[in-house]
Amino acid sequence: MRKAPRQQRSRATVDVIVEAAARVLGRRGWARFTTNEIAAVAGVSVGSLYQYFPNKLAIAEAIRQRHLDEVLRVLSAADQLSETLALEQRVARFVDGVIAAHSIDQALHHVLVDEVPLGARSSYVAFEAEYQRRYQALLAAADGRGGEDGEGQAMAARMLSSAVEGVVHSAAGRNELGAAAFRTELVRLILAYLRDRGAMAQA
């Protein structure tokens, strides 16, 4: 951001701009995402917009950060107290969180992931680390011995998250995220991977 909002009114203006920009970006896509339309939808002047954001890439970064924060918030809510549950229940709660996270404004999610240039993705590094930590926690829970250390578990977490992301994104494209059968099969897929790794580790 060009200028950090310090007063409550300034923060409210930034929130209005980012909210309006998210609606425009989700509806119009990156190619037709313009500061003029953002300002019009937000009900502010273009000059006011440029007080806080130097360009539309900076606005996209603010939208991305807000979206990623919301994804982690949803996953955190699903993860609460899950350590005390049996593995099957823990995976089911995790799947509910993943589905809920990907149900947050699917059009905007698609644009942020597939269209916004890489230059606006600095916030993704911290998000990815936290996201991967949740998969590593699942792996550790399935292991029963506290999980393995090092690159093996990190690689397994990346493999599992990539598989889940691919399946979920495909389901979203087919409008199947809300289907009970999809949830059941995704739980089954994750459990199969976790149990197979656990069996191999104990062999």
Salient structural properties:
elongated; Tetracycline Repressor, domain 2; single chain; 9 helices; Arc Repressor Mutant, subunit A; 203 residues; mainly alpha
Please provide a brief summary of the model.
The protein has 203 residues and is mainly α. Helix content is 74%, strand content 0%.
Plain-language structure description:
- This protein is an all-alpha fold.
- The protein has two domains: 1-54, Homeodomain-like (Arc Repressor Mutant, subunit A, Orthogonal Bundle), CATH 1.10.10.60; 63-202, Tetracycline Repressor, domain 2 (Orthogonal Bundle).
- It is built from nine helices and no strands.
- Helix 1 (8-28) packs across helix 6 and helix 7 packs across helix 8 (151-173).
- The protein is elongated and about 65 Å long.
CATH fold topology of the largest domain: Tetracycline Repressor, domain 2
> What is the molecular shape?
elongated
Span of the ends, CA to CA = 53 Å
> For the residues shown, what is the average pLDDT?
86
Number of alpha- plus pi-helical segments: 9
The helix-and-strand class reads mainly alpha
CATH class of the largest domain: Mainly Alpha
* Series of secondary-structure elements, N-terminal to C-terminal: HHHHHHHHH
Please give the radius of gyration in angstroms. Answer: 20 Å
Kindly give the count of domains: 2
State the helicity in percent bands. over 70%
Total strands? 0
Low-confidence stretches: none
Strand content: under 5%
